[in-house]
Amino acid sequence: MRTRATDLVGIDVPIFGFSHCRDVVAAVTNAGGMGVLGAVAHTPEQLDIDLKWIENEVHGKPYGVDLLVPEKFAGAEQGGLDRSQLQNLMPEEHRKFVDDLLERYDIPPAPDGSGWSGVGAMRVDPKSMAPLLDVLFDHETKLVASALGPPPAHFIERAHGAGIPVAALAGNVHHAEKHAAAGADLIVAQGTEAGGHTGEIATMVLVPEIVDAVDAPVLAAGGIGRGRQLAAGMALGADGVWCGSVWLTTEEAETPPAVKEKFLHAGPGDTVRSRSLTGKPARMLRTAWTDEWEREDGPGTLPMPIQPLLVSDAMRRIHRVADKAGSGGQQLVTYFVGQVVGSMNTVKPTKRVVQEMVEEFVDTIERLGGLLED
Question: What is the predicted pLDDT for the residue at 111?
Fold first, then answer.
C-alpha cells in the first residue's frame, strides 16, 4: 500500500500507532506500520533508554516520537514554571476537593508516592521540553509529532534541520491550516471520537474538510481500530490512519490491569470528554472520577499543567487499590480511551491487530469494487 504518508516515512502500510508503551511501538513498526512513542511523561533518561530499546527491536525500521508542545499553558509567559511554582498556583479549595473525594471513596495513602498515575509528569513547556528534544534528535527517529497546537518554529526548524518530518494533530480546519502554515509535513485529522486530547467535530465530517483545506498528507484519527474504518478514512481522502486506543488492550500494552479490564467490558457510549486529568478536554473512560469533577458544587478544573500536578498523587493512590472489586478505587479509576473501546473486547498481540486491519481493509475494498461490476 503506497500513499503520500507511507512514502514520507518509508513504511509498508499506512497505519500509525501511537502508544506510551515501547513494546507496542516496536510491534506496530515491525508489522509494517509506524509506531509512535508518546513521550510527554518521560524523563530524558527514560526516553533515551526507551529509544535505544526500540531501535534494537526494529532493526532500522522507522518509528516516531510524540510530544505535547502547546502554545497555551499556565506559566507560558515566563517560558514555563517549575514544580514548586506550579504548586503555589493551586487554590486551596481544589486541594480540599481532591482530599474529600479520596476520603469519601476510602482511598488509602500511597507510601513514598509509590504507584502508577499516568499523569503528573507531563512536560509541556520549553524549559522541560528542551532536554527531551536533545535526546530525541540524538536518535534515529523518523517522525516527530506535536499535539495541542501548531508546532513551534524552533521545533519544526530543528526537526527539518535533521531531515525529520513533523506531524501535527488538528481537531478543526482552522487548526489544520495553522499547522500547515507553520510547516507541518503531516496533518492528523483527529475527530472527537478519539481518546486523549480531542475536539468536538466527528471524524467523518472532519477528515474530508481538512483534506480539502491543506496540501500536506492527512491521517484520519478518531474511532479507528478496524480495517473497515481504515478504508473509510482512505475513502474520505486521507493518506493513512493514526490509531491510539486500539493498542490499549493488546498483549504488549502496559495498561494497568484494572483499567484494561474496564476497557474490555466497556461500550462505545462509556467515554466522556473531561478536563479532570490534564486541564484540557480529553476523552477518557467515564467513571465516578469524571462524574465527580462535573458536580455543580465542585471547584472546576485548573489549566494545564496545574491540573495533572493536582491529581497525580490521587491517581497514584487510586491505581494502587483499583484491582479490589467493589472498592472506591475500582469505581474511580479511569484512563484515556476513545469510543472505539466498544470494539476492544479481546486481548490480542499488536501484530495481529495490524494484520487484521489490513486483511479487513482488503476485503472491504474488494467488496466496494464489486459494487461497480456489471
Answer: 80
pLDDT band at 89 (very low <50, low <70, confident <90, very high): confident
Give me the pLDDT at residue 132, please: 87
| Amino acid of residue 125 | D
Closest CA to 327 of 160, 108, 170, 137: 108
Given CATH 3.20.20.70, say whether it is the number of domain 4-73+124-251+348-363: yes
Cβ atoms of 213 and 191 within 8 Å: the answer is no
pLDDT for res 251: 98
Return the domain boundaries, the chain. Answer: 4-73+124-251+348-363, 93-116+256-332
Q: List the end-to-end C-alpha distance of the chain, in Å, as a whole number.
A: 26
Nearest to 246 by CA among 18, 13, 8, 41: 18
Residue of 349, 353, 373 whose CA lies nearest to 361: 353
pLDDT digits (tens, 9 = 90+) for 323-351: 999 999 999 999 999 999 999 999 999 99
* Whole-number Å distance between alpha carbons of 135 and 44: 6
24 vs 126: CA distance, rounded Å: 28
Q: What is the pTM of this model?
A: 0.92
* Set of cell numbers at residue 94: 481544589
DSSP-assigned letter for residue 237: T
